[in-house]
Write a structure and sequence with these properties.
The complex is a heterodimer of chains A (about 600) and B (about 450). With about 600 residues, chain A is mainly alpha-helical. Chain A is built from 28 helices and eight strands. In chain A, the strands form four sheets. Chain A has a two-stranded antiparallel sheet with strand order 1-2. In chain B, the strands form two sheets. In chain B, strands 1, 5, 6, 7, 8, 9, 10, 11 and 12 form a nine-stranded mixed sheet that branches. The chains are: A mainly alpha (about 600), B alpha/beta (about 450). At the A-B interface, helix 1, helix 2, helix 3, helix 14 and helix 23 of A face helix 5, helix 7 and helix 8 of B.
C-alpha cells in the first residue's frame, strides 16, 4: 500500500475533525461536562450496566439480570462485604492456573521447564523471605525468573480474579490501592520476593482504616525497599534518606496540592480548621526533613551488616534504636513549635507522623478525590468529593472507614450520572472483553509444538498488553498508573489497545490462544446462526452482549456493513457471505468476518469507556 | 509535494553531499510549503532528578569535596572526570567518567553546557516540577496545554493538516509538554505500527474504524483518527532498512532515539520529538546506577548525533531534568531531591564547547534553602532563545505565559537563523485556559 503525501492529505480531512477536538481538552470544566450529559441521555445505559462497569471489570453474560434484580443499593451492599460472597468458582480457577518457569544454563541446556500451579500467594512472610535467601545463596546466582516468580504469581492471580471473582469491587479497590501505594515489584529481587505479602496488605486493608493501612504499608518489606527507608539511618543530625518521607506526604497522604515548599519562618505558614480542630495549612520541605528523622531506625531485619548479629534475618520490620535520631521534631505543627518530643519511646515518632498526616483534612480531600476519580470520572463533581470527605473525616478512626467512604461515593446521585466519563485502562479493556466473551486465561504448558521452550502463553499475551502502557505491578515511579484519560489516549496506546484483542483469539493457536475463547460458539449462544441470520441480526446480538445498551447508530452501522462487506456489494439484510472477489468455497471466510466484527465493536469508542 | 522513497533517498544523499558546504537547506523533511527552515527540536527529559553535580562536576569546589566525601567525581585516579575546556570561571568542571560521548560532542563544539539552570519554582517534588516545566508555567501546574503544544500552535502547526507528523513522543505516551495538542502522536517503533485485527480483513476493519472514530469530537475520537492517520502515513513512508545503532548503545533511550532518527529520514514533517529517559532518582547507592545512566545517555546521544549528522544543521537537542540533587550526599550513598540542574544544548547551530550561565557557588549561604545548588538560569531563557533563533517563533509570551522581558536574558548559545525576529512577551494569544487544567471527561456522541 503506497499513499502519496498528497493522497494522504486529501484522504484525511477527518484530521481536521480531530483538530477540533483539541479545544475540548482545553476548555474542560465540570460545568461543561455536566452540560453534555442531556445530549447523550438516550445512550445512557441502565444502572446495572453502569454498576458492573464502574464497580468492577464489566459484566459477564449472566451478571446483568442478577444485578438488575438486586438494584444498585443491593449490589453495593453485597460488594462492600466481600467475605460474605461465595467465590469458590474463582478459587477453583486460581487452583487450576498454570504458569511457565523455563530457563537454560549458559550452554543452552534446559535447567527448568515447569508449568506449575501458583504456590506462593498464601505463603507466610517468613517462608517468602527464606525462599529469597535460598536464591541469594545459590552458587553462580539464581536465574532471574526464579526471583520474579512471586511477582509473576500475583500478576496471574490478579488477572484470574478480575476475570472470575464475584468480589468485583474488592478487586477494583485492590488495584486502586496498589497504584496508590505503588511499588515496582520487578525492580528488585527483594520486592518481588515479598510481593505476595504486599498484595495481602492491599487485600486486608482495601475497605479498612486508612491510618492503619498507611502504617502497614510503611512497615512492609516491599515499601521499605522501594522507597529506601530500610536504610534511613540518622547521621550528622539529619535523616539518612528522605525518599519515603517525601512520598508519604506527597503521594500517600496529603498530596502535592498541600505542599507549600519552603518557609524560613514556620509561623507564616497558617492553619486550617476542620470542625473544632486546627491543622497546619499544608506541609513544607522542613516537615519532610523532620518526618524523615522520625522514621530513622525504621528498618528491616534483613542481615544488614550494621544490625545486631543476634537478630534473625527474616526480612521483616525492625526498629533499630541506634539508627534513630532522638532530637525533637516539628511536623505539621499548627503553631510552628516542635510537636514531637525528643527521646520518645521506640517507634513513637513515626506513629505520631502517621497520626498527623493521615488525620489531616488535606489527606481526606486528596484521597477522596482519587477515589472519586477512580470510581466516577476523571474530573468528578466537587459535590461528591465533599460528601466523601465528610464521611472520611467522621470515620477516620473507624476500622471500616474506607468502606463507608466508598459506600458514600457509590450511592451518590453523581455516581448514577457518571457514565462514559472514564477511559478504560488497557487492563480494564481486556478483562471486560474477556468477561463479555467468556474468554479464559491462557494456561501455560510444559511442551507445545513439540518444543519445551514454547507454551509460555501467558507471557506472550502479557508482553503485548504491557505495550499499551499498563505495567501491572511494575510501574516505575511511586505515583502509580495515571488515572486521567490523557495518558491512555496516545496514538501508541490506541493502537495497542486495538491490537491486543486479536492475541486472545483462536486464530493464532501457536501464540498461545488456549484461552477457550470460541466466538462462534458464543455467537450461537446468542441465538443467531451465521448461516441463516442477517448481518444486522448478528451485529445486534453482539451489541447486546458487549454493551447491554443502544450504542451510536454510526458504530452499529459500521459493524453491520463490515460484516456484510457492504462496500464490496454485500447485503446487510442477508447472512454474511462471500462477496465478489472472494471464493465462496472458503469455509473460514465468514467466521473470520464474524470475529472481525466482534473485534471492531470492541475497538469502538463506546467499548473504550465505562 | 509527494516524495517517493527513491526521490527521498536521492534527496538525502544530496543533502549529505551538501554538508561539505555547511548548512543544509530545507530539503526533504521540511513540511510542505514550509520555507522557514525551522529546526527540528528533540527534547530529552531526564526524569527522576539527574544529579547535575556529578554529571558536570565542580571538582575543585571546597564545599563539593566536603559535602560529598566519597560520592563525587574525582580529579585524579581511575574515575577521574574528563576535563571540560572553557568552563565557568574559577572552577575546575569535569564530565563524569561515563560521559565520554558527551565530552566528544562538547569538544567538537556541538554541545553547550548551561549549569545551575532549571526551574525557578522551588518545588522538590518530582511530579510537580515536571508539570511546571512541561506546561511552561513555573507558577501553575494545571495549565491545560504544554509549552510545546503552544509553540506548535503559535507557528500554525496542529491547526491544519499541513504536516502529518509534526510532533512525536518516541516514548510511547505523550508527555505533558504536548498536552492538548492534536498534532502530537506517540510512537514506540515505526515498523510495528499497524492494525492487526484480522489477517484477511485488516483493511476493511481499518476503514470501519475510521468511520466510528470520525463520529465524535472527544479526545478519544481524535486520538483514534490520529492513530489511523499515523498508520497510513508510516506505511507509505517507512524507509528500508531501518537504521541501527552500534551494538554497544544500551537501553531504552537508544531505541527511542532510533525511532526519532527514522522519522527524520522518513520526511513526515517532524518538527518536535520528545523522549523520556528515566531512572535518575538516586536516593541510595547511587554510584553504579548513576554511571550506567550517564553511560546510556552519552552513548545514545552520541550515536544518534552521528546518525543524523547530515541533518545536524537543522536539529537542536535539549537535555534537562526536573531538578538537580542535594549537595550533601546522604547516609546511604545517594542524594536526595535538590534544585539547580544542568541543561545541555546540542546541535549544528550550537556555539558549543563552552559553558554558559553563572556559577552561584556551593557555600551554605550561596545555596538554595541553604542546601541545594541555586538556579541562576531560568530554563525558559534557554528554550526561549531556541524558539526565537532556531524555531522561528517570537511568541515567547504565548509559549511561556508570565515570562517578561526582564526575565529573558539570552545566553547566545545558538547561531541564529531568524535574526530578524524580536521576542513578543504578550500572552494574549493563549486561550483563556491557564490555571484550568481539568480534563474533559470523554463523552459519547
Amino acid at each position: 500500500m503506497t499513499v502519496s503525501r498528497r493522497g494522504f492529505i486529501v484522504g484525511t480531512s477527518a484530521l481536521a475533525a480531530g483538530a477540533v477536538a483539541a479545544p475540548l481538552l482545553e476548555q474542560a470544566g465540570a460545568a461543561q461536562a455536566q452540560a453534555a450529559v442531556p445530549q447523550q441521555a438516550a445512550a445512557t445505559p441502565p444502572i446495572e450496566i453502569i454498576a458492573l462497569n464502574k464497580m468492577g471489570y464489566g459484566p459477564r453474560p449472566d451478571d446483568v439480570a442478577r444485578v438488575r434484580s438486586l438494584g444498585l443499593a443491593g449490589y453495593v451492599a453485597e460488594q462492600l462485604n466481600p467475605s460474605a460472597i461465595d467465590d469458590s468458582a474463582c478459587d477453583a480457577k486460581l487452583a487450576a492456573a498454570r504458569v511457565k518457569l523455563y530457563y537454560t544454563d549458559k550452554a543452552g541446556a534446559v535447567v527448568k521447564n515447569s508449568a506449575a500451579p501458583l504456590a506462593l500467594l498464601n505463603m507466610p512472610m517468613d517462608e517468602l523471605w527464606a525462599r529469597y535467601r535460598s536464591l541469594e545463596g545459590m552458587m553462580d546466582g539464581a536465574p532471574w525468573q526464579e526471583y520474579m516468580r512471586p511477582w509473576e504469581e500475583v500478576r496471574v492471580a490478579t488477572w484470574v480474579r478480575a476475570l472470575y471473582s464475584k468480589r468485583q469491587l474488592q478487586e477494583l479497590l485492590v488495584e486502586f490501592w496498589h497504584n496508590h501505594f505503588n511499588v515496582n515489584a520487578s525492580s528488585g529481587g527483594e520486592i518481588s520476593a515479598v510481593f505476595p505479602a504486599y498484595d495481602r496488605i492491599m487485600r486486608e486493608n482495601c475497605l479498612g482504616n486508612f491510618r492503619a493501612f498507611t502504617e502497614a504499608v510503611g512497615r512492609s518489606t516491599a515499601m521499605m525497599y522501594y522507597l529506601d527507608n530500610r536504610s534511613n539511618k540518622a547521621g550528622g543530625g539529619e535523616a539518612g534518606n528522605e525518599n519515603y518521607a517525601r512520598e508519604l506526604f506527597e503521594l500517600h497522604t496529603l498530596g502535592s496540592d498541600n505542599y507549600l515548599k519552603f518557609y524560613d519562618d514556620r509561623s507564616k505558614i497558617g492553619t486550617v480548621t476542620y470542625g473544632d480542630e486546627t491543622f497546619a495549612r499544608g506541609y513544607i520541605d522542613d516537615d519532610v526533613y523532620d518526618a524523615a528523622e522520625c522514621f530513622t531506625g525504621w528498618t528491616l531485619a534483613d542481615g544488614h551488616w550494621e544490625l545486631p548479629d543476634t537478630l534473625p534475618n527474616n526480612g521483616q520490620f525492625y526498629y533499630y534504636s541506634k539508627w534513630h535520631y532522638t532530637g525533637d521534631k516539628t511536623v505539621l505543627s499548627p503553631n510552628g513549635f516542635p510537636n514531637i518530643a525528643a527521646r520518645q519511646e521506640p517507634e513513637k515518632d513515626g506513629k505520631d507522623v502517621y497520626d498527623l498526616v493521615c488525620y489531616h483534612p488535606g489527606t481526606a480531600r486528596h484521597l477522596c478525590l482519587k477515589l472519586c476519580r477512580r470510581l466516577l470520572a476523571d474530573n468528578p463533581p466537587s459535590s461528591v468529593v465533599d460528601k466523601a470527605v465528610a464521611t472520611w473525616m467522621q470515620h477516620r478512626r473507624s476500622p471500616d472507614q474506607i468502606k463507608r467512604v466508598v459506600e458514600t461515593i457509590l450511592l451518590s446521585d453523581e455516581f448514577k450520572g457518571s457514565w462514559g466519563q472514564k477511559v478504560k485502562r488497557p487492563f480494564e479493556l481486556v478483562v471486560s472483553y474477556m468477561r463479555a466473551t467468556n474468554c479464559g486465561m491462557p494456561t501455560d504448558l510444559e511442551v507445545a509444538d513439540g518444543k519445551p521452550a514454547a507454551g509460555g502463553y501467558w507471557g506472550n499475551i502479557l508482553g503485548n498488553y504491557n505495550q499499551a502502557g499498563h505495567r501491572l505491578f511494575e510501574w516505575p515511579t511511586p505515583t502509580g498508573h495515571p488515572d486521567l484519560a490523557t495518558y491512555w489516549l496516545s496514538t501508541n496506546g490506541m493502537l495497542r489497545r486495538w491490537n491486543i484483542l486479536d492475541y486472545l483469539g483462536v486464530s493464532h493457536p501457536q501464540w498461545g490462544a488456549n484461552t477457550g475463547l470460541d466466538l462462534l460458539a458464543e455467537t450461537r449462544a446468542l441465538g443467531v446462526d451465521i448461516t441463516k441470520s442477517s448481518c444486522t441480526q448478528i451485529a445486534d446480538a453482539w451489541i447486546g452482549r458487549l454493551f447491554g445498551y443502544g450504542i451510536s447508530a454510526t458504530t452499529r452501522q459500521a459493524a453491520i456493513d463490515f460484516l456484510a462487506l457492504k462496500s464490496m456489494g454485500g447485503d446487510p439484510s442477508k447472512p454474511p457471505a462471500a462477496v465478489q472477489g472472494e471464493w465462496a468455497g472458503d469455509t473460514n471466510l465468514v467466521p473470520d468476518r464474524v470475529r472481525g466484527m466482534i473485534y471492531l465493536l470492541a475497538m469502538s469508542p463506546e467499548f473504550q469507556v465505562r | 509535494m509527494s516524495i517517493s522513497r527513491r526521490e527521498f533517498m536521492i534527496g538525502c544523499s544530496t543533502a549529505i553531499a551538501a554538508m561539505a558546504g555547511g548548512r543544509l537547506s530545507g530539503l526533504s523533511f521540511a513540511a510542505p510549503g514550509d520555507t522557514t527552515q525551522r529546526d527540528i527540536l528533540l527534547f530529552v527529559f531526564l526524569r527522576g532528578g539527574c544529579d547535575s553535580l556529578n554529571l558536570v562536576a565542580p571538582v575543585s569546589d571546597r564545599d563539593y569535596i566536603a559535602k560529598r566525601p566519597s560520592l563525587r567525581v574525582p580529579d585524579s585516579g581511575t574515575d577521574e572526570g574528563w576535563p571540560i575546556g572553557n568552563p565557568l570561571p574559577g572552577v575546575d568542571f569535569r564530565w563524569h567518567r561515563a560521559a565520554a560521548g558527551l565530552r566528544d560532542l562538547y569538544d567538537n563544539k556541538s554541545l553547550a553546557i548551561v549549569h545551575a539552570a532549571g526551574l525557578t519554582n522551588g518545588t522538590r517534588s518530582h511530579f510537580d516540577a515536571m508539570d511546571y516545566i512541561e506546561r511552561g508555567t513555573p507558577t501553575s501546574k494545571v495549565t491545560a496545554s504544554g509549552w510545546i503544544t503552544r509553540h506548535l500552535r503559535s507557528i500554525g502547526v496542529g491547526n491544519s493538516v499541513d504536516t502529518t507528523l509534526p510532533a512525536v513522543s518516541a516514548s510511547g505516551s505523550v508527555p505533558a509538554s504536548l498536552l492538548g495538542s492534536s498534532a502530537a502522536v506517540g510512537i514506540n517503533g515505526v515498523q510495528s505500527f499497524s492494525v492487526q485485527a484480522s489477517y484477511r480483513y485488516n483493511t476493511a476493519i481499518q476503514s470501519a474504524l475510521r468511520k466510528v472514530y470520525a463520529n465524535g469530537s472527544s479526545a478519544m475520537h481524535a486520538s483514534g483518527i490520529a492513530t489511523l492517520d499515523t498508520i497510513d502515513n508510516l506505511n507509505s513512508s517507512v524507509p528500508q532498512p531501518e537504521i541501527t545503532f552500534p551494538q554497544n548503545t544500551p537501553g531504552d533511550l537508544a531505541s527511542a532515539l532510533r525511532t526519532v532518527a527514522n522519522l527524520i529520514r522518513m520526511d513526515v514533517g517532524l518538527q518536535v520529538a520528545t523522549v523520556d529517559y528515566g531512572g535518575w532518582d538516586t536516593h541510595e547507592a547511587q554510584s553504579m546506577p548513576f554511571a550506567n545512566r550517564v553511560d546510556g545517555l552519552s552513548r545514545a546521544l552520541y550515536a544518534f548525533y552521528n546518525y543524523i549528522s547530515a541533518y545536524s544543521q537543522r536539529i537542536t537537542i535539549v537535555v534537562m531534568s526536573e531538578f538537580g540533587r542535594r549537595l550533601r550526599a546522604n547516609e546511604t550513598g545517594g542524594t536526595d531531591h535538590g534544585h539547580g540542574g544542568v541543561v545541555l544544548v546540542i546541535g549544528g547551530s550550537v556555539n558549543g564547547g563552552k559553558m554558559y550561565g553563572s556559577w552561584p557557588g556551593l557555600a551554605e549561604e550561596q545555596l538554595d534553602n541553604r542546601v541545594d545548588l541555586a538556579v541562576t538560569t531560568d530554563y525558559r531563557v534557554v528554550l526561549g532563545e531556541l524558539l526565537l533563533e532556531r524555531l522561528g517563533n517570537p511568541s515567547l509570551g504565548v509559549v511561556f505565559p508570565g515570562m517578561t522581558e526582564t526575565d529573558y536574558k539570552p545566553l547566545n548559545i545558538l547561531y541564529p537563523s531568524f535574526s530578524s525576529l524580536t521576542p513578543d512577551f504578550s500572552s494574549s494569544g493563549v486561550d483563556g485556559t491557564l490555571g484550568n487544567g481539568v480534563f474533559l471527561p470523554v463523552t459519547m456522541r
